[in-house]
Write a structure and sequence with these properties.
The complex is a heterodimer. By secondary structure, chain A is mainly alpha-helical. In chain A, 68% of the residues lie in helices and 1% in strands. Chain B has 2 domains: 227 residues, Rossmann fold, CATH 3.40.50.300; 121 residues, Beta Barrel (OB fold (Dihydrolipoamide Acetyltransferase, E2P)). In chain B, the strands form 4 sheets. Chain B has a 6-stranded mixed beta sheet with strand order 6-7-8-3-9-10, sandwiched between helices. Chain B has a 5-stranded mixed beta barrel with strand order 11-12-13-20-14. Chain B has a 5-stranded antiparallel beta sheet with strand order 15-19-16-17-18, with no helix packed on it. The chains are: A mainly alpha, B alpha+beta.
Chain lengths: 415, 367
């Protein structure tokens, strides 16, 4: 047994050490605390809130709080309408809903599931005051949709506090008449196509950025500092201009009556009647986004290349490698860290990019983020927006995981 | 004087080099390197040594002149076709490859078969005593080990000529000395031709067959180490190599190959061999090695005997390094052997010191 070491005044060494370190630990925690709080409030909370919203479904149960518990006893496969007591409770619910004006919201919520609910609920909230027993007949008299078992199935399903219907909608699926899950009909499929387009366009944009950025970064890394600083300023110049201005500039350049088309026509490369469509479509989105995201590829590449001594290439050549072999076998592998960092940065920015595709994307160039924004701002279907966002997040995480498996995150070098 | 050689392996003819078109970094370089020779380019930093090596390796074009390798002009031959091995100052080992892969690289790009490759890599690794380190990455090796890998890699494809640019510059003193011997032995065992660059004169003296002393883009002298040390041809070489006492003055008399020089700041006249001075009236620097000075010589025994005051004594075990003031110069160093005869010298004491005329060389006035 070793003796417990003590300091000169008899306190065990470990205790004394811990005491000495406590203050510096506290200091370190105090230093990061503001940022931690900020990130928690501004980043984690919204993400958790978004994930919650994509499944949250309290509204129907809350507003129709008398009728929904009774409805749970109803067997939707019986082929019968619910009992009279459900209708009676529903009438009370509607009277209360009219008071606090919540009927429209429930109607709108159910309308996502099946068109027609919005009008039905507005009408019923107005008519519930004048209803008398028997309520079942009164409701059906008000609107015969109340006699449709199918509608009751939807109501019962969505009275549960949590739902996967937003996710189903985000994946172009829905409930079939028999209550099972089925894909939408051909012309009702939007989002999968958009996810796919977002994915390949982001990959393509990342690839283009890499191809364009690699030679520039190489040039920057071999030039004397005075010259490379000047060039870096040119690379960063886009950052100093408003995103909107830059995007608008692309519109001026690329539109049918724009500078490039004028030049091409003037040189006689195409007829005046067949001016190139380079904006408000996929091409426009790709051109503008590559331009905007290029610096995010250049900077990590440059910072990695800067650290590669020129003697590596010389050594490879002195060992008998042709310049090409030396480049591929010695130089490129040493830039993998920069390629990885730049590619991930550009890809993640591209996959969530919003303004540029909205302005120059037209029909064929919009991305999933534009639809998320649409559901948040126009259709106010936050649940669907949240589900789309959550799926996007999931895709990014999966790709990130794959990247880690294949390249290794540790190899990434951001600067 | 360059050693003339019938069949030099490397031949620099009238090489000039300028990077900016304004200043010449290398001014008229003429140098032959014989097969099997260990030639060192020695000079202060910025004197153009690396530039010469880079021109030979093919990484910098010569502004003027021609370089011959085995009698063939190579100015227009790409670096990878020259077949010259090279060790870089920072080793330039490829960090993403293991030691083994680093060594196999030159063999792979030559299209050598797997078996032959493995045999060669193995032999090269054993030569530098790193047989067990093949699987390591360069970053997992110590500086000395990395250095040995760099040497092995430059030799693994059997080049006739190997260039080394300050290969030991990053090592500590003990390791450096050990590596000097190892490189020297490899050179002898393999019959290589080595062009070696260093700014460390003791390294150059230890390793070389011949040393080319560079200053300001010009070879000041190119000679074997002992000639360079014993018979420097100008003040720069005398000063740069080994320890040297300098006395400045003016030639007052010239007698059969010797000159008499009146030393500045005193009326003493020193007799020295005339090497690189104009006649009477010209200024000169006298050069004298500290170990050639005798303390307390008999009168008339030596041509130059002067009273000197001991200013500082440093005990170094085998000898005592003493700084004297003599002939008005207070930085005159003498190495006194640590024998009973000289044990009594004290600081501030004045004694006679002397040296022979043939040990003292009258050189250019330099700066
Ligand atoms: N690539 C280069 N571009 C411009 N000047 C250079 C370059 N390489 C070396 N020089 C200049 O040439 C001179 C000689 O350099 P160098 O050959 O590296 O000397 P050494 O190796 O003897 O220290 C120095 O003044 C240096 O500044
Ligand atoms: Mg150098």
């Amino acid at each position: 047994m070793s003796q417990v070491l003590v300091t000169a005044d008899g306190v065990p060494l470990k205790t004394s050490l811990a005491r000495a370190q406590r203050r510096s630990k506290l200091k370190a925690v105090a230093l990061v605390a503001p940022l931690f709080v900020f990130i928690a409030v501004a980043f984690f909370v919204p993400i958790i809130d978004m994930l919650f919203r994509s499944v949250e479904n309290q509204l129907v149960g809350e507003v129709l709080h008398r009728s929904m518990p009774l409805l749970q006893k109803w067997d939707e496969r019986s082929g019968e309408l619910p009992e009279e007591e459900v209708f009676a409770a529903l009438a009370l619910d509607f009277r209360e809903a009219k008071e606090n004006k919540s009927g429209g919201r429930v109607g709108r919520r159910l309308n996502y599931e099946k068109p027609g609910f919005s009008g039905l609920f507005r009408k019923s909230a107005r008519g519930a005051d004048r209803m008398e027993a028997p309520y079942r007949e009164a409701f059906i008299a008000l609107d015969e949709k109340w006699g449709d078992i199918e509608n009751w199935r939807v109501i019962k399903r969505e009275s549960a506090p949590y739902t996967i219907s937003y996710y189903l909608a985000a994946l172009d699926m829905g409930y079939a008449d028999d209550g099972g899950i089925a894909r939408n009909s051909e012309d009702g499929r939007i989002y999968l196509k958009l996810f796919w387009r977002t994915l390949w366009m982001s990959l393509f944009i990342t690839f283009l950025c890499l191809i364009l950025a690699y030679p520039i970064s190489y040039l920057l890394s071999v030039l004397p500092t005075a010259k490379s600083n000047l060039l870096i300023i040119l690379v960063l110049l886009p950052f100093w201009t408003s995103l909107l201005v830059r995007t608008t500039a692309w519109i001026a350049l690329l539109q049918q009556e724009g500078v490039i088309n004028d030049l091409v026509v003037w040189f006689g490369l195409v007829d005046d009647d067949n001016r190139l469509a380079m904006i408000h479509n996929r091409t426009g989105t790709i051109i503008a986004m590559v331009h905007i995201l290029l610096p995010f590829m250049v900077l990590p590449l440059y910072s990695v290349m800067k650290t590669i001594p020129p003697s590596y290439m010389r050594a490879a050549k002195s060992l008998g490698a042709t310049p090409f072999t030396a480049f591929v076998r010695v130089y490129m592998p040493n830039t993998v860290a920069g390629i990885g960092a730049g590619a991930i940065l550009v890809f993640i920015l591209a996959i969530g990019y919003y303004i540029t595709p909205a302005l120059v994307g037209g029909q064929s160039g919009t991305l999933i983020s534009n639809f998320i924004a649409f559901h948040m701002q126009n259709s106010l279907n936050w649940g669907l927006a949240a589900a789309l966002g959550a799926i996007l997040l999931g895709v990014v995480l999966v790709l990130y995981f794959l990247y880690d498996k294949i390249v290794g995150i540790d190899n990434m070098k951001l600067g | 004087m360059n050693m003339t050689n019938e069949n030099p392996l490397v031949r620099f003819v009238d090489i000039q080099k300028s990077y900016d078109g304004v200043t010449l970094v290398v001014k008229s370089l003429n140098l032959d390197v014989a097969k099997g020779e260990f030639l060192t380019m020695l000079g202060p930093s910025g004197s153009g040594k690396t530039t010469c090596l880079m021109m030979l390796a093919g990484f910098e074009p010569a502004t003027h002149g021609e370089i011959y390798l085995n009698g063939q002009g190579i100015n227009r031959v790409a670096p990878h076709k020259r077949g010259i091995g090279m060790v870089f100052q920072n080793y330039a080992l490829f960090p993403h490859m293991t030691v083994w892969e680093n060594l196999a690289f030159p063999l792979e790009v030559r299209g050598m078969g797997k078996d032959e490759r493995e045999a060669k890599v193995k032999r090269a690794l054993e030569m530098v005593r790193l047989g067990a380190f093949g699987d390591r990455r360069p970053a997992q090796l110590s500086g000395g080990q990395q250095q040995r890998v760099a040497v092995a890699r430059s030799l693994v494809f059997d080049p006739d000529l190997v260039l080394m640019d300050e290969p030991l510059g990053a090592l500590d003193k003990n390791l450096r000395e050990q590596m000097q011997y190892e490189i020297k032995h490899i050179h002898e065992n393999l019959g290589l031709t080595v062009v070696y660059v260093t700014h460390d004169q003791s390294e150059a003296l230890t390793m070389s067959n011949r040393i080319a002393v560079f200053d300001d883009g010009i070879i000041q002298q190119c000679a074997p180490p002992e000639v360079l040390y014993e018979k420097p041809e100008n003040a720069f070489c005398a000063n740069f190599i080994g320890e040297n006492n300098r006395l400045r003055g003016k030639v007052v008399e010239e007698v059969n190959g010797n000159v008499k020089v009146e030393v500045d700041g005193s009326d003493a006249t020193v007799e020295a061999v005339k090497i690189k001075v104009e006649g009477v009236g010209a200024r000169a620097t006298l050069s004298l090695r500290p170990e050639r000075v005798v303390v307390g010589p008999k009168k008339g025994e030596m041509a130059n005997i002067f009273p000197a005051r001991a200013e500082e004594l440093i005990y170094l075990g085998d000898h005592i390094r003493t700084r004297f003031t003599v002939c008005g110069h207070d930085d005159f160093i003498v190495k006194i052997p640590n024998s009973a005869a000289h044990a009594h010298l004290r600081e501030g004491e004045t004694v006679d010191i002397g040296w022979n005329a043939e040990d003292c060389r009258a050189l250019d006035p330099s700066d």
